[in-house]
Amino acid sequence: MKGNPYLFAAYAVTWIIHIAYISTIVARYSRLKREIAELKKK
Amino acid sequence: MSAPSGITRVTLLKDLRLEWRSKDAVNSMLFFSLLVVVVFSFSFDPSAEESRQIAGGLIWVAFLFAAVVALNQTWAREIRNQVLDAYRVSPAPANSLFTAKVVGNFIFVSVLEALMTPLFVVFYRLRSLGPVWQLALVAALGTWALVVNGTFFAAMSLRTRSREIMLPLLLFPISIPALLAMVQATTAILNGEGARFWMALLASYDLVFTTVCLLLFETVLNAE
Amino acid sequence: MKKAFPILGVLTAILLVYALYQALVVAPTEQTMGAVQRIFYYHVPSAWTAFLLFFINFGSSVYYLIKRCATADIVALVCAEVGVVFCTVVLITGPIWARPVWGIWWTWDMRLTSTLVLWLIYVSYLFLRRFSSGGQTPLLAAALAVLGALCVPFVYFSIWFFRTQHPQPVMGGGGSIDPRMMHALLINWLAFSCFAFLVCWSRYRLEKLSREVDEAHAMQSLLDPGGRAL
Predict the structure, then answer these.
(1) Which chains touch C (3 or more CB pairs under 8 A)?
(2) With a threshold of 0.95, does the pTM exceed it?
(3) What is the DSSP string of C213-226?
(4) Beta carbons within 8 Å of A28's beta carbon, 6+ residues apart
(5) 3-class state of residue C151 by DSSP
(6) Which chain A residues are Cβ-neighbours of C203 within 8 angstroms?
(7) Which residues neighbour C84 within 8 Å (Cβ) at sequence distance 6 or greater?
(8) Is residue C108 part of a domain?
(9) Which of B203, B221, B202, B201 is nearest to B213 (CA)?
(10) Cross-chain residue pair A28–C206, CB shorter than 8 Å
(11) Considering the domain boundaries, does residue C124 fall inside one?
(12) Measured between CB atoms, which of A10, A11, A42 is closest to C220?
């Protein structure tokens, strides 16, 4: 199979978008976890 | 249930009288669309032939932006003295209020269009090749589409932060098919071509969205 | 339930790798377009997944309007958000495919335009959810979702008619599709649907947690003796 920059770019962009979205979910999730732990401590 | 048509009429007459005394909405819309006309004329200097091609888009963009100015005012007036809350607790059906507001806005925007059209004709050297009554029909159908959705979304954006920003954000995407139909129909008629498909599309759009807005308006008005 | 998530995650990862292998190696190279055509195996499944998510968003919004059930509201929110992500993928991979094949990045052809309009409608839905405050958000959002979904047939119909009056961009030759291509396409669709389901699930858990935190804050301000609430 011949390497094709357009093909590579399309596949890469797909995963970059998905990973970026998932990492926002993870970041928000961990922040909320911390917040709820602090609330329970009080 | 009190007579819905009576409430519609009373609310409509009240809005018309308020508008007649202040002329706030119509004046600001007129000035706004005049500005749009002038600004656009800087970017194009079309011949009669070219202006037929672009006029449909130009006119409707001007009217759309102007209509948003009026639509943002619609409910603001009712918020000021808690009129809307009073309306909510009263047994008056929500839909008659909605109908009154839509008809009122329809009249305001139609007045604007009637006043602005001669200006467009003069500034852009427009001469229609198709029948003018069809243009009037397209204008009526298109204005109704904008105003029904606009009044509904204006009521919706009342409940949001920064409501003036919210209205165009909600209204424009949903109005895209209607806008496309208006622009295409206008351009087709100006060039003396048939526009039956676009008018039918616009009419069915009006029908569907009027029905659904009437069905959902009470929910939106009473949302807590 | 908690255990199901990692198991499903591993299965989806395996499926995604297998689908990638199918798309890049097993499926034959298309004759006119060459290797670029393999974007198809990511582009089309993403589009189908996005449309499916938007459809679920419509269904759960209607359900919310009838039953006022909080779960339906969360499902609607989650599907719209993940759907917008998938739709973004479609809108970005589309031009990357169009450039080498048609010679242009973007054309106002029927499918591109209607997907863009769909994307705009659901982004405005997310804006409404973001900008409205408090308990009315679900109702307003559900009403908008219903209107937006009703708009979709009009979008397709108007843009279809709009575009048939204009010259079409040169599409790759039609005709029957190779069974191996079809197989790769379906495997990819399955893999992306599983992936979308997992993402939706995580987003659902995030939303649940965020509502819990909001409630805890409200409780805190009620119970806190030094607070201003009491």
Answers:
(1) A, B
(2) no
(3) HHHHHHHHHHH-TT
(4) C206, C210
(5) helix
(6) 25
(7) C50, C119, C122, C123, C126
(8) yes
(9) B221
(10) yes
(11) yes
(12) A42
Q: Which of C136, C147, C161 sits opposite B224 (nearest CB)?
A: C136
Instruction: Tell me which amino acid residue C229 is.
Output: A
Given A10, A21, A32, which is nearest C42 (Cβ)?
A: A10
Residue B168 has a CB neighbour count (10 Å cut-off) of: 19
Q: Token digits for C79?
A: 């599907």
Is C221 part of any domain? no
Domain that holds residue C147: 18-26+35-164+178-195
The question of ipTM being above 0.90 is answered as no
Chains A and C touch (3+ CB pairs under 8 A): yes
Does a structural domain hold residue C126? Answer: yes
B109-112 long-range contacts, Cβ below 8 Å, gap at least 24? B109/B29, B109/B63, B109/B66, B109/B67, B109/B70, B109/B143, B109/B146, B109/B147, B110/B139, B110/B140, B110/B143, B111/B26, B112/B26, B112/B29, B112/B30, B112/B33, B112/B63, B112/B66, B112/B67, B112/B70
User: pLDDT tens digits for C160-210?
Assistant: 887 765 545 444 444 557 788 888 889 999 999 999 999 999 999 999 999
Rounded (10°) angle between helices B4-22 and B24-43: 60
The DSSP code for C1 is -
> C120, C144 in Cβ contact below 8 A?
no
Residue to test with chain C: of A16, A21, A23, most C Cβ within 10 A:
A21
Contact between C209 and A32 using a beta-carbon 8 Å cutoff: yes
Partners of C121 on chain B (C-beta within 8 Å) are 173-174
CB nearest B219 (choices: C65, C121, C123): C65
**Amino acid making up residue B79:** I
Residue B125 φ then ψ, to 5°: 50, 50
**What mean pLDDT is reported for chain B?**
87
Residue with tokens 């206008």: B186
**Domains: count for chain C:** 1
How many Å is the Cα radius of gyration of chain C?
21
Pairwise CB contact (< 8 Å): A2 & C96: no
Q: How far is C203 from chain A (nearest CA, A)?
A: 7
Q: What is the least distance, in Å, from the CA of B209 to any CA of chain C? A: 8
3 state DSSP class of C134:
helix
Residue identified by tokens 């039918």 is B200
Count of structural domains, chain B: 1
Neighbours of chain B (3+ CB pairs under 8 A): C
Domain that holds residue B79: 4-221
Q: What is the pLDDT of residues C107-164, one digit of tens each?
A: 777 788 889 999 999 999 999 998 887 778 889 999 999 999 999 889 888 888 877 6
